[in-house]
Amino acid sequence: MAQSIVPTLVLPSPDVVSLKGGFPYAEMAKKAAQLFCNATSHCATRQLQTMTQYGPENGDEYFRKMLADFLSRQYQAYVLADELYVTAGATHGISLISSLLFEARDNVYVEDPSYFRVFKVFEGYGLNIISVPTDPEGIPSALEETVTSHNAKPATRPLTETKPYKGMIYLVPTFHNPTGKCLSLDRYKEVIAIARRHNLLIVCDDVYNLLYFTDKPPTRLYSYDTKSDPDYAANVVSNGTFSKIFSPGIRLGWIEAPYKVLKLIAESGLAVSGGCFNHTVSCIMASAISLGYVDSSTEEYRAALKSHCKAVTDVFRRELPKEVQVSQPMGGCYVWVSLPDGMEAQRILDECSKEYKISFQVGNKYVLCDDVFNTVM
Ligand SMILES: Cc1ncc(COP(=O)(O)O)c(C=O)c1O
Questions:
Q1: Are residues 15 and 356 in contact, defined by beta-carbon separation less than 8 angstroms?
Q2: What ranges do the domains of the chain cover?
Q3: Is-same-fold flag (17-27+295-376; 44-293)?
Q4: How far apart are the first and last CA of the chain?
Q5: pLDDT tens digits, the chain, 377 residues: what are they?
Q6: What whole-number distance in Å separates Cα of residue 240 and Cα of residue 255?
Q7: Which superfamily does CATH assign the domain made up of 17-27+295-376 to?
Q8: Pocket (CB within 6 angstroms of ligand 1)
């Protein structure tokens, strides 16, 4: 009998109010499609000869310049074109780093709870996932202890020029998925110090940074790994994507990292044989940035998510029992709801889906051990 693949990233049906994931809402998805078509025509007049070629491994020079300008404007901090590497989205960036810089049985430390889909990426490469408890400020109160205890075990492999790190710390430091939390600036320094002491690579999944509800973008952990520090050893990368600020369907993202890391990706068989990981779309997005489309869609997402978040948290605070705690995110897509003992998220979800056609994610998905009963959206 023929077998078929059952997709998990399907859009919710229009009669369901879905609080489940970071999808673009319908109006923005349509707008992005129109802008993408305009940008394609613009790109064809500028780059017809080269836009459908393989493209340089690290990405088209003009695109990386446009992206660096866009990010510098949006982060209000300098981003260098030479520290950018084109990927096919944030998931691809994590996948590249996991497969090219690490080996099966290497340790990856993740926050508990953490973005659940990334577990599958790490598992796919045989990485040893270790969850680290968080407190209201996020990681790393327990991080050093956990790292020290794991590093005390005999190494499973020697460090080499192409796999120079002992392990990875995977973080969503800003507007965390699923808790919405931000790591404090003091914690930035602590986590970098731990990474330097233990020779770990911090992978910051910076996919929500530009979706802030305040008047200024948050500072990135990446900018704290200062090159002039005497113990600097290139311990941080920032993983970005257009998925949350323009469109996930275009599958375009970037890794911002020091040369030491980018060189290892550029010299991989994948890059040497295939060139740029998404050249044509990156050329089109260079046009989209130059036409101002990405600045305006980022601005629109920011404003819309801020008002969506207010609407949802207002209703939750008004309608849910007092013992239920509702987070107050300052940006991003996620609200974390903590239920008191005896209230079970799965039961509430079943009832909401049946009675009200409302869906959300159950918190247990985001932890490696099944020990909490939180709900998130
Ligand atoms: C933390 C985090 N990383 C990565 C992704 C996926 O990004 P992309 O579509 O660029 O692969 C998501 C999407 O929800 C996410 O929340």
A1: no
A2: 17-27+295-376, 44-293
A3: no
A4: 37
A5: 788 888 887 777 888 888 888 888 889 999 999 999 999 999 999 999 999 999 999 999 999 999 999 999 999 999 999 999 999 999 999 999 999 999 999 999 999 999 999 999 999 999 999 999 888 888 877 899 999 999 878 777 999 999 999 999 999 999 999 999 999 999 999 999 999 999 999 999 999 999 999 999 999 999 999 999 999 999 999 999 999 999 999 999 999 999 999 999 999 999 999 999 999 999 999 999 999 999 999 999 999 999 999 999 999 999 999 999 999 999 999 999 999 999 999 999 999 999 999 999 999 889 886 444 344 44
A6: 6
A7: Aspartate Aminotransferase, domain 1 (3.90.1150.10)
A8: 22, 89-91, 115, 172, 177, 205, 207, 241, 243, 248, 253
Is there a contact between 169 and 201 (Cβ–Cβ < 8 Å)?
A: yes
Give one DSSP letter per residue of 21-68, joined into a string.
Answer: S-PPPHHHHHHHHHHHHHHHHHHHHHHTTTTTS---TT--HHHHHHHH
Q: How far is the CA of 207 from the centre of ligand 1 (A)?
A: 6
| Residue 268 structure tokens | 């991989």
- For residue 186, the one-letter residue type is D
Q: Which CATH class is domain 44-293?
A: alpha beta
Nearest Cα residue to 376 out of 357, 356, 332? 332
Query: What is the C-alpha to C-alpha distance for residues 97 and 260, in angstroms, rounded to an integer?
Result: 12
Burial of 234 (0-12, 13-18, 19+ CB in 10 A): middle
How far is the C-alpha of 365 from the C-alpha of 374, rounded, in Å?
10
Among 172, 177, 301, which is best to mutate for testing ligand 1, by the most ligand atoms less than 8 A from CB? 177
Expressed in angstroms and rounded, the spacing between residue 1 Cα and the centre of ligand 1 is 34
